[in-house]
Amino acid sequence: MSDDQLAATGAMASLGDALSCIGPTCGDAIDWSAAKRMYDTSFPSDYRAFVAAFGSGSIEQMIYIFVPAVTSAESQANTVSRLSEAALADVSVNEWAPPFRNLHRLEDLLIWGSTAAADTLCWVTTDPDPDRWPVAVYSRSTLEWSVYPCGMAEFLSKLLRDELQPWPISDISLQGVIDPRFLHDKDEAAGWEAGEDPWE
């Protein structure tokens, strides 16, 4: 196991200590070989571990985590994707916080999540090793991209422990949450369909 994989494993373990899955559905089984063919890339080991442990769903209805599509029929808003052509053509979307200007391209971003405040959570996929992909966040409050030199699991772990300054997303409702919860999409949908609040 490489140093990057060891770091990813440690970050996922730290995230698992901070986050609990509250529904009966915890984790998704993904055909990662098919996903690699679909996206023409492998995925970070911490992300694959997250998908296996938690799957597609949200953290406190604030942060939404997507899983990759494995067929073109599955490609939709709730799956990993590149930025849309409209976003790529929108000059206002290509604003970067001062330390990151002229360092990254929108075309190299791969979306793995979003927030209820319409922030976008991505990887910068320029490194051939996915375990070295940093996280990029487009904040609707600042209308800028910022880049964090860590993987998805470490980013979420630090976010949930309020260790990222300044706060990287537009909504501060996660700050101070003692025991953050994850709920799978299937369980949330089933709860609402039954007329119940699945978060209660």
Describe this structure in words.
It contains 6 helices and 9 strands. By secondary structure, the chain is α+β, with helices and mostly antiparallel strands. The protein has one domain (about 5-165, about 170-195): SMI1/KNR4-like (3-Layer(aba) Sandwich). Strands 1, 2, 3, 4, 5, 6, 7, 8 and 9 form a 9-stranded mixed β-sheet that branches. The N and C termini lie far apart (about 40 Å). The model has no long low-confidence stretch (mean pLDDT about 90).
For the residues shown, what is the average pLDDT?
Answer: 92
Q: Give the strand tally.
A: 9
* CATH architecture annotation: 3-Layer(aba) Sandwich
Q: Give the percentage of residues in beta strands.
A: 15-25%
Query: Largest sheet at a glance?
Result: 9 strands, mixed
The rough form would be described as globular
Q: Span between N and C termini? A: 41 Å
CATH class: Alpha Beta
Number of domains: 1
Give the C-alpha Rg.
16 Å
Query: Portion of residues in helices?
Result: 25-40%
Report the order of strands and helices. Answer: HEHHEEEHEEEEHEH
Low-confidence stretches: none
CATH topology: SMI1/KNR4-like
